[in-house]
Amino acid sequence: MKYRFFACLFAFFLMPLLSGWTVAGPIRTIVIDPGHGGHDPGAVGLSGSHESKVVLDVALRLGKLIQKQHPEVKVIYTRSTDVFIELYKRAEIANKNKADLFISIHCNTAANATAHGAETFVMGMDKTNANMAVAQKENAAILKETDYENNYEGFDPYSPESYIIFSLLQNAHLTQSTHFASSVQKCFTNDLHRNDRGVKQAPFLVLWRTTMPSVLIELGFLSHKEEEAYLLSEKGKNEMSRSIYKAVNQMIVENGGLSAPVDGKVAAEKNPADTSVVADSAAVQPKPVTAVNPDLVYKIQFAASSVQKPADDYAFRGLPKVQCRPSGSVFVYTAGEEPTYESVLPVLELVREKGYKDAFVIAFYKGERIRLDQAKKLEKSSGILK
Ligand SMILES: [Zn+2]
After folding, report:
1. How far apart are the CA of 324 and the centre of ligand 1, in A?
2. CATH number at residue 295
3. Where are the beta strands (DSSP E) in 222-340?
């Protein structure tokens, strides 16, 4: 009996986690958090460079890219100028705005002048405490706040006892945060050939208080001569921000959005803005008003995964017309195939009843993914929507 219970537990709860299974709604709001600022310069580089300035520059470039490529996504900065913002306020900004992703950007320094490379952190306590030093250094930013004793309930960034509480807490967004962190690191290392210091867990105060998938990126070491020069250069700041953007774009796609890569090379799906879908909508108009548009299909997206699963997988039992298609670097799973928005809604209800609570409607025109408002417009023009 016991064995059976654990087998079930494994199949239904742990397997999805282990395989990078993600089910979430669309990415609507992203909060970008350039570390430090104002009277807190953060790390000071070999040539006297300030972490606060480097990360602000990269953050603004990243935000501009997201806004340009994904105008449907709201970008909020915790700071967009050289001002000091308390750590707890940064998380508060993300929580109040119900952000779907929180990206904190930092630079590192080390006594060892040869230390270099990029690393991305998620909130957590790893048993070896190997990454504690980085977290302690970044958390020490609170010592520059006027009322830190009260705001952090006596938390001392340099006392190991202060960190015990974190080992008792679960990170509800660990899987998604880790998945995004891995994408960021892959872009840094595969595209830019930066030294890969990996994805790590450490107890960062700024991540601890956020209630959405959150990462803290250390772009590189300002104490390393070449890396500092790279991070200060136009090329370096451009490349690093584009790399992070690439991972953001991937996350948007995984959560049901459309791919809008900067260079267009990694497009798995065409951006409807670049296609003739809008023009087609005018062409559809003269059609008889009674006809269902045969080129228009509605489906329910209920999951995305970094590994491909057979569509008749046990996990999908009971869902109609399950299909799997590659989208960006992930596999997206849909159920149903309906000609009208109205007729796909019962499928949505069914999928949600089966436990995929964040499932949502997506639409295709001539096999290409299009936005829902465009699909509804197409429907209206052929007389289906009243
Ligand atoms: Zn920092």
Report:
1. 41
2. 3.30.70.1070
3. 296-305, 323-327, 330-338
pTM (predicted TM-score): 0.68
Say if residue 47 is in the same domain as residue 117. Answer: yes
Residues 176 and 124 in one domain: yes
106 Cα: distance to centroid of ligand 1 (angstroms): 4
Mind listing the pLDDT tens digit for each residue in 248-300?
Answer: 999 999 888 888 988 754 333 333 333 323 333 333 333 333 457 778 899 98
Number of structural domains found in the chain: 2
Those residues whose C-beta lies under 8 Å from the C-beta of residue 173, and which sit 6 or more positions away, are 211, 212, 213, 214
Cα separation, 118 vs 241, in Å, equals 13
User: What is the whole-number distance in angstroms between the Cα of residue 105 and the centre of ligand 1?
Assistant: 7
Name the band, by pLDDT with cuts 50, 70 and 90, for residue 12.
very low
Q: How far apart are CA 148 and CA 19, in angstroms?
A: 40
3-state secondary structure of 157: coil
Phi, psi of 194 (to 5 degrees): -75, 155
Residue ending a domain, among 224, 254, 284, is: 254
Is residue 6 one of the residues assigned to a domain?
no
134 CA distance to ligand 1 middle (Å)? 9
Distance 35 CA to ligand 1 centre (A): 5
What does DSSP say about strands 360-365 and 296-305: parallel, antiparallel, or unpaired? antiparallel
Distance, CA 54 to ligand 1 centroid (Å)? Answer: 10
My answer on whether 151 and 289 are in the same domain is no
CATH code of residue 227: 3.40.630.40
Compute, in angstroms, the gap from residue 254 CA to the centroid of ligand 1. Answer: 29
Q: What is the distance in A from the centroid of ligand 1 to the CA of 144?
A: 13
Residues 112 and 149 in one domain: yes
